[in-house]
Amino acid sequence: MTASYSLTDLPAFGALQALALDLKSASIQHLFAEDPARASDFVAQAAGLRLDYSKHLLDRAARSTLLALAEQAQLPQKAQALLGGGEVNNTEGRPALHSLLRASSAPGLEDKFAEVVATRARMRHWADRINNGEQRGFSAEAITDVVNIGIGGSDLGPRLVSEALKPFQGDIRCHYVANVDPADLQDTLLDLDPASTLFIICSKSFRTEETLTNALAARAWLTRAGAHAADLDRHFLAITTNLAAAAEFGISGDNCLPMWDWVGGRYSVWSAVGLSCAIALGWEHFEQFLDGAAAMDAHFASAPPADNLPMLLSLLEVWYGNGFGAGNHVVLPYDQGLARLPDFLQQLTMESNGKRVASDGTALAYDTGPVLWGSAGTMGQHSFHQLLHQGTRLCPVDFILPLTTHTGMAEQHRRLVANGLAQSRTLLVGRSVEEARDSLLARGLSSDEAARLAPHLAMPGNRPNSVISFAALTPHSLGALIALYEHRTFCSGQLWGINPFDQWGVELGKEIGVDIFERMGGAARTTALDAATEALIAQWRQHQH
Ligand code: F6P
Predict the structure, then answer these.
(1) 453-481 pLDDT per residue, tens
(2) Is the CB of 153 under 6 A from ligand 1?
(3) Is 240 in the pocket of ligand 1 (CB under 6 A)?
(4) Whose CA is nearest to atom 5 of ligand 1?
(5) Which of the residues 171, 234, 311, 436 has the least number of beta carbons within 10 Å of its own beta carbon?
(6) Which domain holds residue 259?
């Protein structure tokens, strides 16, 4: 069986391969020299975000061919299908309507939108109630701390938003527990008072091992402190599609907020999954967060590929992945509040586009989603940036750069911005062997020593990077930024011809995990495990007393 769609069958693909071959040996600095308008023309703006993609191994001809590829892959039409509720998740027979969660109207999708609006009202009710001190624990104390228990999409999005928008936070403290490692929950509960703590059990399926295990441990912690079964609604909310399982746990319908199968976990921070953020930030800030994403949705829906930020970023991803063989992509937020962004983007991009078959099930003959990694600047500069500057692998970088700080420490923040700009420029210009030798001579080294050390100091430069800058990290700009990466992920999935909305690859490990857990507990099984796993279980047994 051959795939009905293949990236390599698009007419522009062959031309792109040839262009990539040429541009592999091009100098980005020469591209700047030859094209005086490059710094302003390789820029696109939307929803308050400015994308500078001038420092790439990309000339105007290659850009035009990439834009032709976007048209041939029908990205504008695919964007309409996504936003209009088309069945873009073909393996699960569903739309992927995360954009509806931040919409202010939804022609043609009125039924679903009515549910969204009703859920927003309930989120607001809970955010206000908890912030106003009306929600009281088993001994009538007001709730002061909220613990979101969830994992993957039920953790990474709200955790990112809460941390990024700390300057907008009110009085309620929010905490996040995800790992089944009991230390995660234990460390979090250490400083909390059961009487004034509320847990949000955030699980679309309400079947996830880590979340349910931690939820049971949290319930036991409350019970030990004096809460009774009748008090559970004072201390638990659930966000789920599985009301029956939440009820079985002891959470009443009034305390359950819905999720829908047409929203994927990693795209769900805009739904009630974001309730912890709405509580932490207050409803108005949460609405601004939704508005920022909606502004990006409107741009994605209407801008031609040449101006369309998500499409441009996606074309660059495919350009490097399939034209240059780059296997990874680096995201460097120059903002401590965005330290969690790489973690969030790992799930978003790698769970979405880490696929090896096309949407119709045929094996792909080309690479799909790259490994995404990164960390907040400037820490990486004293660590892995060595590899970015002098390593052998091609690592395209996105710098994320808010231009002001909420700290009031503008002078110190200027250092942060300067470092981000310096890293972007250093990746571009590098340093030749001659320059390295001259600098060593200037430091007083002998010419022999300078010649010996110069190759170690030399840096090739010419390393591609984008800069996404914006005025300040606010609810609006964060919403726009996350939506930008969501749509980039979607576009790349479309270019590769895969379904970015399923994640079957995570299931087998869960099943084997349950099986091994039971075997460790002594359950007999007819099928043998591999010898290495048996040996490790035996070693584990020796350490149980
Ligand atoms: O195991 C992967 C996954 O299903 C993710 O896709 C999801 O975000 C996460 O687990 C949590 O799932 P749930 O919200 O159903 O607990």
Answers:
(1) 999 999 999 999 999 999 999 999 999 99
(2) yes
(3) no
(4) 152
(5) 171
(6) 103-287
CB 251 within 8 A of CB 236: yes
26-33: Cβ within 8 A, 24+ apart: 26/57, 26/59, 27/462, 28/55, 28/56, 28/57, 28/428, 28/461, 28/462, 28/464, 29/428, 29/429, 29/461, 29/462, 31/58, 31/59
Nearest CA to ligand 1 atom 1: 506
What is the C-alpha to C-alpha distance for residues 266 and 375, in angstroms, rounded to an integer?
Answer: 19
User: Is 510 part of the annotated catalytic residue set?
Assistant: yes
CA distance 542 to 545: 8
Are 211 and 201 within 8 A, CB to CB?
yes
Q: What angle do CA 96, 99, 101 make, to 5 degrees?
A: 100
Residue 86 sits in the same domain as residue 108: no
The verdict on 368 and 403 lying in the same domain is yes
Asked if 234 and 124 sit in the same domain, the reply is yes
271 and 337 inside one domain: no
At 236, is the secondary structure helix, strand, or coil?
strand
Domain holding 65: CATH number? Answer: 3.40.50.10490
How do residues 297-346 score in pLDDT, each as one tens digit?
999 999 999 999 999 999 999 999 999 999 999 999 999 999 999 999 99
* pLDDT, position 514: 93
Stated pTM of the model: 0.97
Number of domains in the chain: 3
Please give the average per-residue pLDDT across 66-81, as a whole number: 98
Same domain, 231 and 121: yes
Going 108 to 111 to 112 to 115, the CA torsion angle's sign is positive
